[in-house]
Prior knowledge:
Family: Belongs to the binding-protein-dependent transport system permease family.
Oligomer: single chain
Shape: globular
Largest sheet: none
Strand content: under 5%
Number of helices: 13
Structural class: mainly alpha
CATH architecture: Orthogonal Bundle
Helix content: over 70%
Main location: membrane
Distance between the termini: 57 Å
Transmembrane segments: 97-114, 126-147, 217-238, 244-263
Membrane topology: Multi-pass membrane protein
Radius of gyration: 25 Å
Order of helices and strands: HHHHHHHHHHHHH
Number of domains: 1
Organism: Chelatococcus asaccharovorans
Amino acid sequence: MSIDAVETPRRLLSLPRPTALAAPLAGALRRAAPTVAWGLVLPAVALPGWYLAARSGVLPEQILPAPAYVWSTFVDMVRSGELASHAGISLLRVVEGFGLGMIIGLVAGAAMGLSRRVDDMLHPFFIALSQVPTLAWIPFLMLLVGIGEPLKILVIVKATLVPVVINTRAGIRNIPKGLLEVGDVLRFTTGQKLRLIVLPGTVPPVFTGIRYGLTHAWIALVSVELLASSEGLGYLLVWGRQMFWLDTVVVGMIVIGLIGYVSDRLLASVEARLQRWAPRHD
């Protein structure tokens, strides 16, 4: 018998069995089941209420379309590709604006957290910037760049920038001094302190800022698309309102909410993985 013929069964025996793989998955599903169940309570109550209100005629169909009618509209928009087209345009705008705002925010927040001089220069500016609502910047930015794509990107960048900067700065400033003193005792270089102490220690606040930034980015996107756009999910809401297609408006609102929820859950999953890297202060 050849060596390969002997080794192959050994390798097969060393592979994890399906039952061994299924056990962790089943455990994760059991842990998530209560959360999912509680999350479905409100929709389970709201959907029958919506159906009964539409069926009884409390409000006209033009104001409150029935759930079945909204579902039919959703299916038609998916089949025609209209919904995917508008959602894709909005997602691309969010990815570009949020990505740029997050990078600038992380760099600026880190600089403010690590340098007292930079903080003295920039912190008052960002505090003042955070007090001005994103919607208030739209007329001014329209005068500067018009109503094209740069307007949408700049509005999203501004909405993302502020929470990322503030939380990154706070995360660095709140690193326990004891951890930094340990780095001094171990004679860490500046790079080692950043990599082994500062970065792991700032995971929770930084991701809080990033998640808030993503939420603000979606709000800003829909706001600017409502005012100055001919495509995207925000434009879909305006068009549906103008044509009194309330079923289209409801579909747009649901899709915006679902995309925002899924995006936030993805960031929460990444944060949970990175939390294992964060140092414990016990």
